[in-house]
Amino acid sequence: MENTLGLEIIEVVEQAAIASSRWMGKGEKNTADQVAVEAMRERMNKIYMRGRIVIGEGERDEAPMLYIGEEVGICTREDAKDFCNPDELIEIDIAVDPCEGTNLVAYGQNGSMAVLAISEKGGLFAAPDFYMKKLAAPPQARGHVDINKSATQNLKILSECLERSIEELVVVVMDRPRHKELIEEIRQAGSRVRLISDGDVSAAISCAFAGTNIHALMGIGAAPEGVISAAALRCLGGHFQGQLIYDPEVVKTGLIGESREGNIARLKEMGITDPDRSYNADELASGQTVLFAACGITPGTLMDGVRFFHGGARTQSLVISSQSRTARFVDTIHLFDEPKTLQLR
Ligand SMILES: O=C(COP(=O)(O)O)[C@@H](O)[C@H](O)[C@H](O)[C@H](O)COP(=O)(O)O
Ligand SMILES: [Mn+2]
Ligand SMILES: [Mn+2]
Protein backbone atom coordinates (compact mmCIF):
# COMPACT_ATOMS: atom_id res chain seq x y z
CA MET A 1 0.00 0.00 0.00
CA GLU A 2 2.78 2.40 0.94
CA ASN A 3 4.57 1.75 -2.35
CA THR A 4 1.59 2.62 -4.47
CA LEU A 5 0.11 5.40 -2.33
CA GLY A 6 2.96 6.90 -0.32
CA LEU A 7 3.83 9.84 -2.55
CA GLU A 8 0.29 10.35 -3.79
CA ILE A 9 -1.19 10.94 -0.35
CA ILE A 10 1.44 13.54 0.42
CA GLU A 11 0.18 15.48 -2.59
CA VAL A 12 -3.41 15.03 -1.45
CA VAL A 13 -2.79 16.72 1.90
CA GLU A 14 -0.44 19.30 0.35
CA GLN A 15 -3.08 20.40 -2.18
CA ALA A 16 -5.75 20.66 0.52
CA ALA A 17 -3.43 22.66 2.78
CA ILE A 18 -2.40 25.08 0.02
CA ALA A 19 -6.01 25.70 -1.00
CA SER A 20 -7.13 26.28 2.58
CA SER A 21 -4.19 28.47 3.50
CA ARG A 22 -5.23 31.01 0.87
CA TRP A 23 -8.16 31.69 3.22
CA MET A 24 -6.00 31.99 6.29
CA GLY A 25 -7.01 34.92 8.48
CA LYS A 26 -10.03 35.87 6.38
CA GLY A 27 -12.58 34.99 9.00
CA GLU A 28 -14.42 32.61 6.65
CA LYS A 29 -14.17 29.16 8.16
CA ASN A 30 -16.64 27.53 5.78
CA THR A 31 -14.75 28.68 2.71
CA ALA A 32 -11.40 27.59 4.21
CA ASP A 33 -12.97 24.17 4.75
CA GLN A 34 -14.77 23.94 1.40
CA VAL A 35 -11.70 24.68 -0.73
CA ALA A 36 -9.70 22.08 1.22
CA VAL A 37 -12.40 19.48 0.61
CA GLU A 38 -12.50 20.27 -3.12
CA ALA A 39 -8.73 20.16 -3.49
CA MET A 40 -8.44 16.92 -1.55
CA ARG A 41 -11.18 15.26 -3.55
CA GLU A 42 -9.81 16.41 -6.90
CA ARG A 43 -6.31 15.08 -6.13
CA MET A 44 -7.63 11.81 -4.65
CA ASN A 45 -9.60 11.13 -7.79
CA LYS A 46 -6.41 11.19 -9.84
CA ILE A 47 -4.93 8.28 -7.86
CA TYR A 48 -4.96 4.71 -9.14
CA MET A 49 -6.74 3.26 -6.10
CA ARG A 50 -10.10 1.92 -5.02
CA GLY A 51 -10.96 4.05 -2.00
CA ARG A 52 -14.04 4.58 0.12
CA ILE A 53 -14.50 7.42 2.59
CA VAL A 54 -15.31 6.02 6.05
CA ILE A 55 -14.75 9.24 7.96
CA GLY A 56 -15.50 12.40 6.05
CA GLU A 57 -17.61 15.47 5.90
CA GLY A 58 -20.84 13.73 6.93
CA GLU A 59 -23.75 12.02 5.23
CA ARG A 60 -24.30 12.34 1.50
CA ASP A 61 -27.29 14.71 1.75
CA GLU A 62 -25.60 17.30 3.93
CA ALA A 63 -22.11 17.00 2.39
CA PRO A 64 -21.76 17.19 -1.37
CA MET A 65 -18.16 15.94 -1.28
CA LEU A 66 -16.05 13.45 0.63
CA TYR A 67 -19.19 12.18 2.30
CA ILE A 68 -19.17 8.89 4.16
CA GLY A 69 -19.48 6.09 1.63
CA GLU A 70 -18.18 8.15 -1.31
CA GLU A 71 -15.91 6.19 -3.61
CA VAL A 72 -12.69 7.88 -4.61
CA GLY A 73 -9.85 7.01 -6.96
CA ILE A 74 -9.60 6.00 -10.61
CA CYS A 75 -9.95 2.28 -9.84
CA THR A 76 -13.51 2.70 -8.55
CA ARG A 77 -14.62 2.91 -12.18
CA GLU A 78 -16.57 -0.10 -13.45
CA ASP A 79 -13.98 -0.90 -16.10
CA ALA A 80 -11.11 -0.54 -13.58
CA LYS A 81 -9.85 -4.09 -14.15
CA ASP A 82 -8.79 -3.07 -17.63
CA PHE A 83 -6.26 -0.50 -16.49
CA CYS A 84 -5.61 -0.93 -12.74
CA ASN A 85 -3.11 -3.46 -11.40
CA PRO A 86 -4.12 -5.97 -8.67
CA ASP A 87 -2.58 -3.85 -5.88
CA GLU A 88 -4.55 -0.81 -6.99
CA LEU A 89 -7.77 -2.83 -7.04
CA ILE A 90 -7.56 -3.70 -3.33
CA GLU A 91 -10.37 -1.91 -1.51
CA ILE A 92 -9.12 0.66 0.95
CA ASP A 93 -10.84 2.77 3.59
CA ILE A 94 -9.99 6.44 4.02
CA ALA A 95 -10.61 8.82 6.91
CA VAL A 96 -10.24 12.49 6.01
CA ASP A 97 -10.31 15.85 7.70
CA PRO A 98 -9.32 18.19 4.84
CA CYS A 99 -9.22 21.18 7.17
CA GLU A 100 -8.66 20.14 10.79
CA GLY A 101 -9.02 23.36 12.74
CA THR A 102 -11.19 25.49 10.46
CA ASN A 103 -11.43 28.21 13.11
CA LEU A 104 -7.65 28.24 13.42
CA VAL A 105 -7.34 28.88 9.68
CA ALA A 106 -10.09 31.49 9.63
CA TYR A 107 -8.50 33.45 12.49
CA GLY A 108 -4.87 32.92 11.48
CA GLN A 109 -3.98 30.81 14.51
CA ASN A 110 -1.51 27.95 14.87
CA GLY A 111 -2.21 24.24 14.70
CA SER A 112 -4.40 23.59 11.64
CA MET A 113 -3.64 20.85 9.13
CA ALA A 114 -5.03 18.85 6.23
CA VAL A 115 -5.05 15.23 7.34
CA LEU A 116 -6.03 11.71 6.32
CA ALA A 117 -5.54 8.09 7.33
CA ILE A 118 -5.77 5.01 5.12
CA SER A 119 -6.06 1.30 5.77
CA GLU A 120 -7.34 -1.78 4.00
CA LYS A 121 -11.14 -2.23 4.03
CA GLY A 122 -12.46 -2.43 7.60
CA GLY A 123 -9.16 -1.27 9.09
CA LEU A 124 -10.46 2.03 10.51
CA PHE A 125 -13.25 2.40 13.06
CA ALA A 126 -16.13 4.15 11.29
CA ALA A 127 -16.68 6.59 14.14
CA PRO A 128 -20.05 8.30 14.28
CA ASP A 129 -20.18 12.07 14.43
CA PHE A 130 -20.19 11.97 18.23
CA TYR A 131 -17.86 13.26 20.88
CA MET A 132 -15.01 11.18 22.22
CA LYS A 133 -13.16 11.32 25.51
CA LYS A 134 -9.48 10.98 24.60
CA LEU A 135 -6.23 10.12 26.28
CA ALA A 136 -2.99 10.38 24.32
CA ALA A 137 0.48 9.92 25.76
CA PRO A 138 4.06 9.13 24.67
CA PRO A 139 5.22 5.60 23.77
CA GLN A 140 6.87 5.08 27.19
CA ALA A 141 3.43 5.36 28.80
CA ARG A 142 1.57 3.11 26.34
CA GLY A 143 -0.58 0.61 28.21
CA HIS A 144 0.31 2.14 31.57
CA VAL A 145 -1.95 5.20 31.59
CA ASP A 146 -5.64 4.37 31.30
CA ILE A 147 -8.63 6.44 30.26
CA ASN A 148 -10.67 4.82 33.04
CA LYS A 149 -8.31 6.17 35.69
CA SER A 150 -8.50 9.70 37.05
CA ALA A 151 -6.34 12.47 35.63
CA THR A 152 -4.44 12.55 38.93
CA GLN A 153 -3.64 8.83 38.74
CA ASN A 154 -2.60 9.09 35.09
CA LEU A 155 -0.29 12.03 35.79
CA LYS A 156 1.44 10.00 38.51
CA ILE A 157 1.88 7.05 36.10
CA LEU A 158 3.05 9.40 33.34
CA SER A 159 5.63 10.98 35.60
CA GLU A 160 7.03 7.54 36.46
CA CYS A 161 7.07 6.39 32.81
CA LEU A 162 8.72 9.58 31.58
CA GLU A 163 11.05 9.84 34.57
CA ARG A 164 10.12 13.43 35.26
CA SER A 165 8.16 15.11 38.01
CA ILE A 166 4.44 15.73 37.76
CA GLU A 167 5.24 19.46 37.78
CA GLU A 168 7.31 19.01 34.62
CA LEU A 169 4.41 17.52 32.66
CA VAL A 170 2.40 19.57 30.16
CA VAL A 171 -1.13 18.41 29.32
CA VAL A 172 -3.09 19.77 26.37
CA VAL A 173 -6.80 20.26 26.99
CA MET A 174 -9.38 21.87 24.71
CA ASP A 175 -10.58 25.15 26.18
CA ARG A 176 -14.24 24.25 26.72
CA PRO A 177 -16.61 24.67 29.71
CA ARG A 178 -16.94 20.87 29.82
CA HIS A 179 -13.31 20.65 30.92
CA LYS A 180 -13.52 23.01 33.90
CA GLU A 181 -13.12 20.25 36.49
CA LEU A 182 -10.52 18.35 34.48
CA ILE A 183 -8.37 21.47 34.19
CA GLU A 184 -8.66 22.11 37.92
CA GLU A 185 -7.70 18.52 38.68
CA ILE A 186 -4.62 18.62 36.45
CA ARG A 187 -3.48 21.89 38.01
CA GLN A 188 -4.20 20.58 41.50
CA ALA A 189 -2.05 17.52 40.79
CA GLY A 190 0.79 19.91 39.94
CA SER A 191 1.01 19.62 36.14
CA ARG A 192 0.77 22.44 33.67
CA VAL A 193 -2.10 22.83 31.22
CA ARG A 194 -1.84 24.08 27.67
CA LEU A 195 -5.29 25.17 26.55
CA ILE A 196 -6.13 24.99 22.86
CA SER A 197 -9.17 26.46 21.17
CA ASP A 198 -9.26 23.81 18.40
CA GLY A 199 -7.15 21.13 16.77
CA ASP A 200 -6.80 18.14 19.04
CA VAL A 201 -5.35 15.90 16.29
CA SER A 202 -2.13 17.89 16.31
CA ALA A 203 -2.04 17.78 20.11
CA ALA A 204 -2.55 14.01 20.22
CA ILE A 205 0.18 13.28 17.69
CA SER A 206 2.57 15.70 19.38
CA CYS A 207 2.53 13.40 22.43
CA ALA A 208 4.38 10.77 20.41
CA PHE A 209 7.39 13.00 19.77
CA ALA A 210 9.82 13.94 22.52
CA GLY A 211 10.78 17.59 22.23
CA THR A 212 7.30 18.95 21.61
CA ASN A 213 6.87 19.60 25.35
CA ILE A 214 3.44 18.00 25.15
CA HIS A 215 3.14 14.94 27.37
CA ALA A 216 -0.56 14.15 27.21
CA LEU A 217 -3.86 15.10 25.64
CA MET A 218 -6.84 14.75 27.94
CA GLY A 219 -10.52 15.61 27.55
CA ILE A 220 -13.31 15.47 25.04
CA GLY A 221 -13.10 16.29 21.32
CA ALA A 222 -14.77 14.87 18.23
CA ALA A 223 -14.81 11.11 17.57
CA PRO A 224 -13.74 11.19 13.87
CA GLU A 225 -10.64 13.17 14.86
CA GLY A 226 -10.04 10.51 17.52
CA VAL A 227 -9.79 7.77 14.90
CA ILE A 228 -7.41 9.82 12.76
CA SER A 229 -5.24 10.53 15.82
CA ALA A 230 -5.33 6.84 16.77
CA ALA A 231 -4.09 5.86 13.29
CA ALA A 232 -0.99 8.02 13.71
CA LEU A 233 -0.34 7.01 17.31
CA ARG A 234 -0.73 3.34 16.54
CA CYS A 235 2.00 3.59 13.88
CA LEU A 236 4.22 5.62 16.21
CA GLY A 237 3.75 3.31 19.20
CA GLY A 238 2.19 6.03 21.32
CA HIS A 239 -0.74 5.64 23.68
CA PHE A 240 -4.24 6.50 22.50
CA GLN A 241 -7.60 5.58 23.98
CA GLY A 242 -11.03 6.89 23.11
CA GLN A 243 -14.47 6.50 24.63
CA LEU A 244 -17.60 7.76 22.88
CA ILE A 245 -19.56 10.44 24.71
CA TYR A 246 -23.30 10.28 24.13
CA ASP A 247 -24.69 12.15 27.13
CA PRO A 248 -25.57 15.74 26.15
CA GLU A 249 -25.22 16.74 29.81
CA VAL A 250 -21.49 16.02 29.61
CA VAL A 251 -20.71 18.16 26.58
CA LYS A 252 -23.62 20.62 26.52
CA THR A 253 -22.87 21.60 22.88
CA GLY A 254 -22.87 20.72 19.26
CA LEU A 255 -22.45 17.36 17.66
CA ILE A 256 -24.91 15.06 19.40
CA GLY A 257 -28.67 15.00 19.88
CA GLU A 258 -30.31 16.37 22.99
CA SER A 259 -31.65 13.06 24.26
CA ARG A 260 -29.25 10.67 25.97
CA GLU A 261 -31.50 7.70 25.16
CA GLY A 262 -31.88 8.86 21.57
CA ASN A 263 -28.11 9.02 21.21
CA ILE A 264 -27.69 5.51 22.64
CA ALA A 265 -30.31 4.27 20.17
CA ARG A 266 -28.46 6.00 17.30
CA LEU A 267 -25.24 4.28 18.33
CA LYS A 268 -27.03 0.94 18.50
CA GLU A 269 -28.30 1.42 14.95
CA MET A 270 -24.69 1.86 13.91
CA GLY A 271 -23.77 -1.43 15.56
CA ILE A 272 -22.30 0.04 18.75
CA THR A 273 -24.04 -1.95 21.47
CA ASP A 274 -21.71 -1.05 24.34
CA PRO A 275 -21.60 2.75 24.19
CA ASP A 276 -19.33 2.97 27.26
CA ARG A 277 -16.58 0.84 25.81
CA SER A 278 -13.13 2.39 25.61
CA TYR A 279 -11.10 1.65 22.51
CA ASN A 280 -7.34 1.70 22.19
CA ALA A 281 -5.35 2.77 19.15
CA ASP A 282 -5.08 -0.80 17.81
CA GLU A 283 -8.87 -1.10 17.87
CA LEU A 284 -9.60 2.29 16.32
CA ALA A 285 -7.02 1.68 13.59
CA SER A 286 -6.98 -2.10 13.45
CA GLY A 287 -5.89 -2.64 9.85
CA GLN A 288 -2.81 -4.64 9.02
CA THR A 289 -1.42 -1.63 7.19
CA VAL A 290 -2.12 1.93 8.25
CA LEU A 291 -0.90 5.05 6.49
CA PHE A 292 -1.26 8.58 7.83
CA ALA A 293 -0.51 11.91 6.17
CA ALA A 294 -0.87 15.50 7.35
CA CYS A 295 0.24 18.85 5.95
CA GLY A 296 0.39 22.03 8.01
CA ILE A 297 -2.00 24.79 6.96
CA THR A 298 -0.97 27.24 9.67
CA PRO A 299 2.26 26.69 11.67
CA GLY A 300 2.08 24.03 14.35
CA THR A 301 4.11 21.99 16.82
CA LEU A 302 4.90 19.32 14.24
CA MET A 303 4.91 21.12 10.92
CA ASP A 304 5.25 24.59 9.53
CA GLY A 305 2.28 26.14 7.75
CA VAL A 306 2.04 26.90 4.02
CA ARG A 307 4.38 29.73 3.01
CA PHE A 308 3.82 31.45 -0.33
CA PHE A 309 6.53 33.15 -2.33
CA HIS A 310 6.52 34.69 -5.80
CA GLY A 311 5.37 31.91 -8.15
CA GLY A 312 5.21 29.13 -5.61
CA ALA A 313 4.72 27.82 -2.11
CA ARG A 314 6.51 25.68 0.42
CA THR A 315 4.77 23.06 2.55
CA GLN A 316 5.70 20.69 5.34
CA SER A 317 4.02 17.33 5.76
CA LEU A 318 4.27 14.29 7.98
CA VAL A 319 3.73 10.84 6.50
CA ILE A 320 3.61 7.85 8.82
CA SER A 321 3.51 4.21 7.76
CA SER A 322 2.97 1.06 9.80
CA GLN A 323 4.38 -0.90 6.85
CA SER A 324 7.83 0.64 6.60
CA ARG A 325 7.68 1.83 10.24
CA THR A 326 8.64 5.33 9.26
CA ALA A 327 7.60 8.86 10.14
CA ARG A 328 8.76 11.09 7.32
CA PHE A 329 8.79 14.86 7.49
CA VAL A 330 8.47 16.04 3.91
CA ASP A 331 9.39 19.55 2.88
CA THR A 332 8.11 20.49 -0.57
CA ILE A 333 8.53 23.43 -2.89
CA HIS A 334 5.57 23.83 -5.24
CA LEU A 335 6.23 25.71 -8.46
CA PHE A 336 3.06 27.37 -9.72
CA ASP A 337 4.42 29.44 -12.60
CA GLU A 338 7.77 31.11 -13.22
CA PRO A 339 9.05 31.83 -9.72
CA LYS A 340 11.57 34.66 -9.42
CA THR A 341 13.26 32.91 -6.53
CA LEU A 342 13.14 29.50 -4.89
CA GLN A 343 12.91 30.00 -1.17
CA LEU A 344 15.36 27.66 0.59
CA ARG A 345 13.92 28.18 4.09
O1 LIG B 1 -11.00 21.53 16.84
C1 LIG B 1 -11.53 20.72 16.14
C2 LIG B 1 -12.37 21.19 15.04
O2 LIG B 1 -12.27 20.40 13.86
P1 LIG B 1 -12.84 20.99 12.46
O3 LIG B 1 -14.31 21.11 12.59
O4 LIG B 1 -12.45 19.91 11.50
O5 LIG B 1 -12.17 22.27 12.18
C3 LIG B 1 -11.31 19.28 16.43
O6 LIG B 1 -9.95 19.08 16.65
C4 LIG B 1 -12.05 18.78 17.69
O7 LIG B 1 -11.75 17.43 17.93
C5 LIG B 1 -13.54 18.70 17.65
O8 LIG B 1 -14.03 18.81 16.36
C6 LIG B 1 -14.23 19.57 18.63
O9 LIG B 1 -13.85 19.38 19.97
C7 LIG B 1 -15.73 19.38 18.60
O10 LIG B 1 -16.22 20.65 18.60
P2 LIG B 1 -16.66 21.47 19.93
O11 LIG B 1 -18.07 21.12 20.16
O12 LIG B 1 -16.43 22.90 19.53
O13 LIG B 1 -15.75 21.07 21.05
MN1 LIG C 1 -11.45 18.44 12.60
MN1 LIG D 1 -12.46 19.75 9.42
Walk me through the structure.
It is a single chain. The chain is an alpha+beta fold and 345 residues long. The protein folds into two domains: 4-121 and 288-335, Fructose-1,6-Bisphosphatase, Chain A, domain 1, CATH 3.30.540.10; 131-284, D-Maltodextrin-Binding Protein, domain 2 (3-Layer(aba) Sandwich). Helices cover 30% and strands 26% of the residues. The protein contains eleven helices and 14 strands. The chain has helices spanning 2-21, 29-44, 86-89, 102-106, 151-161, 180-189, 200-206, 223-236, 248-251, 260-269, 281-284; strands at 50-55, 71-72, 91-100, 113-120, 131-137, 170-174, 192-196, 216-222, 239-245, 278-280, 290-296, 307-309, 312-321, 326-335. Strands 1, 2, 3, 4, 11, 12, 13 and 14 form an eight-stranded mixed sheet that branches. A hairpin with a 2-residue loop joins strand 12 (307-309) and strand 13 (312-321). Helix 1 (2-21) packs antiparallel against helix 2 (29-44). It starts with a helix and ends in a 10-residue tail after the last strand. The model has no long low-confidence stretch (mean pLDDT 95). Bound molecules: ligand LNFHSRP7 and manganese (II) ion (MN) (2 copies). One manganese (II) ion (MN) binds at residues 97, 100, 225. One of its GO terms (cellular component) is cytosol. InterPro entries: FBPase_class-2/SBPase. Homotetramer. Its EC number is 3.1.3.11, 3.1.3.37. Pathway: Carbohydrate biosynthesis; Calvin cycle.
